[in-house]
Amino acid sequence: MTNRFLGTSLIALLFLLPDATAPAHAQAKKASIDKKVDQIEVKKIGAVSETIGKAPWNNAYELQTDHFIVHIDIPEKEGIEVARKLEYLLLVMADVFQLDMSKWKGKKNCYLFNDINKFREVRDRIKGPQQAVHGYATDSMLICYVRGRGYGNLYWTYLHEGCHLNFNAIFGSQRYNSNYWAIEGIACYMGSLKTKPDGSFAFGEEDHKMLKKAYEGYGSKIAEMISWGYDQFVFRSDRGTYYVVGYGACHYFFNAEGGKHKTKFGQYIKLVHSGQAKPGSFKEVTGMEPSQAQEAIVKHVSQIP
């Protein structure tokens, strides 16, 4: 989840490609994702003895990439893979959504814990949001149980929170009065990223049993969900199911009908993260009535392998 108070294949995702007039930073990001995951440079800085909030921390160490400082306590080989995926996710998002990377300031701190109880201890010590079950992100930091998986293993929590961090760092932490589903839905979808044998990434290729089950009872609620703000979405006992519903909607917009909805949906996602979306923004940007989208999304999810 993102904290408002604090702020299919990779090729198929590249729907907002820079043209000859694109800013230099955007063209650079396009070139950089041609790297394989294992080509992302990760530097080991050394041991870490304390968490944020000054709690003692055993077996922890610091890694750095171009954009992140990763404090982590899992075996080093796994830790390096996590750091690479966080960096690569940012490169992919910068290209997919044409993010203005000139707005990215400094390296962002990530605190990733092998033990969920350690995450909870630190979350409470620094007065983080209690509704953050496995992790949360601000515009400068993420804190997470690194082995956490979201609802039916649809996504990795640290990548979900990494998506929040990336958008927050570019757009700032906003107060979302409507369209909040898109904040969590896109983070769930981006958090489903997996590494293919050739070192590239794929999205939306997880086990979709829980997704299909969720849609049996909640598919008819998509149109209503679209206009909800933060409070309506987050402070629900069944919000976890709506995360899954949002994932399914994003899967539709990225993949259905040969990707015809990708560009407009990308524009909608950026509008929502900017904090400027209004109740009617979904129709205005995507060109679809919420009820029309609901019907199409439910059909798409029923046909996902």
Question: How would you briefly describe this protein structure?
Answer:
With 305 residues, the chain is an alpha+beta fold. It has 13 helices and ten strands.
Spatial order of strands in the largest sheet = 1-2-3-4-6-5
Number of separate helices: 13
List unreliable stretches of 5+ residues: 3-32
Overall tally of domains: 1
Q: Can you give the mean pLDDT?
A: 87
Strand residues, percent: 5-15%
Q: Could you please describe the fold and organization of this structure?
A:
It is a single chain. This protein has 305 residues and is an alpha+beta fold. The chain has one domain. 45% of the residues lie in helices and 14% in strands. The chain is built from 13 helices and 10 strands. The chain has helices at residues 10-13, 24-32, 76-96, 116-125, 157-171, 181-190, 209-218, 222-226, 230-234, 239-255, 262-273, 281-286, 290-303, and strands spanning 43-50, 56-64, 68-72, 108-113, 135-137, 141-145, 149-150, 155-156, 194-195, 201-202. It has a 6-stranded mixed β-sheet with strand order 1-2-3-4-6-5, sandwiched between helices. The longest helix is centred in the N-terminal third of the chain and has 21 residues, at 76-96. It is globular, with a radius of gyration of 18 Å.
Q: Key terms for this structure?
A:
single chain, 305 residues, alpha+beta, 6-stranded mixed beta sheet, two-stranded antiparallel sheet, 10 strands, 14% strand, disordered N terminus
